[in-house]
Amino acid sequence: MSEDRRARSVGIGRAHAKAIVLGEHAVVYGAPAIALPVPQLTVTASAGWSCRGPDDLGDVSFTSTGSPSRPLMTQASASLRRLIAEFTTTMAVTDGPHLDILIDGAIPHGRGLGSSAAVARAVALALADLHGVRLAEHEAFDLVQTAENVAHGRSSGVDARTVGAPAPLLFQAGEAEELKPGCDGLFIVADSGVVGRTKDAVELLRAGFQRHPGAQDRFVGRATQLTDEARHALASGRPEELGSRLTDYHELLRAAGLSTQGIDALVEAALDAGSHGAKITGGGLGGCMIALARPEQAGEVTRRLHAAGAVQTWVVPLRGPAEGG
């Protein structure tokens, strides 16, 4: 924490969405995962004081605009209040008058895009800005994890790290490593319009492991193999191989019962349009799909995805502007 304590009247914090490229579900069993920041989808939080009366000291209210709905903010308020309490203790700041938090977000909820982690990070950074302190990255991560653990139970940490990352990350056993893509290309994320059911998907997978001896080891082993091969393909500039590993991982998740007819239709549409590969992304049983395509294919892939039922799509360059050349 920096001691630049120049308190402001309003603090601002920002974060972005994320998508899992490979490693869903297996990462909680120790396998690696590759995660992609989605900077096109952002959350901005503002934090400020308002004097509502002596009984409001230390109280907080949340208001949302944009994509997060009022029920979502009601649900998220417990985790955000915990984050605020942890921030106050960890940063050794004092409570002021009534705290107003305004959240403006464009990340669809329940699609595996890290909406809750992005909101938490934006709020943490807004609080730091308000109090005139500077959060180290590990401090921001810990605060987001505090909120994520309240909201979802034990969290792997993938979302908490990726919603603030500038580049793709390899994540394993609690450690994150920035990946440097060796090739150009575009990831296309498509929203099926159906809220994913991560908790149900986790239980479905666990139940399958319990019914079939050795199933967990086979699943985690195959997931690890595919993610390792994808990581090497990404680094060495082999987009066709990277795409094939995406499609192979989709088959792994589909065989476990974690896909849907809608997601499968999007995967098929992306492949028919010439994508290198495509798969479900996130917890499953709804949510989003991700495809890897050449830049010149992006328009046709996007058109086919919308024709197949996608309600929204976002195009994310494999390499950002700073990584080009």
UniProtKB/TrEMBL annotation:
GO molecular function, one term: mevalonate kinase activity
Domain GHMP kinase N-terminal, residue spans: 92-159
Residue ranges constituting the GHMP kinase C-terminal domain according to the UniProt record: 231-309
PROSITE patterns referenced in this protein's UniProt entry, alphabetically: GHMP_KINASES_ATP (PS00627)
Database matches in Gene3D superfamilies: 3.30.230.10, GHMP kinase, C-terminal domain
Family label: Belongs to the GHMP kinase family. Mevalonate kinase subfamily.
Keyword presence, Lipid biosynthesis: yes
Location, primary (coarse class): cytoplasm
Pathway: Isoprenoid biosynthesis; isopentenyl diphosphate biosynthesis via mevalonate pathway; isopentenyl diphosphate from (R)-mevalonate: step 1/3
The entry's keywords: ATP-binding, Cytoplasm, Kinase, Lipid biosynthesis, Lipid metabolism, Magnesium, Nucleotide-binding, Plasmid, Transferase
Enzyme class of the recorded protein, top EC level: transferase
Taxonomic lineage from the root: Bacteria, Bacillati, Actinomycetota, Actinomycetes, Kitasatosporales
Subcellular location as annotated: Cytoplasm
Record bears the keyword Nucleotide-binding: yes
Organism for this UniProt entry: Streptomyces camelliae
Gene: mvk
Protein EC: 2.7.1.36
Protein name (record): mevalonate kinase
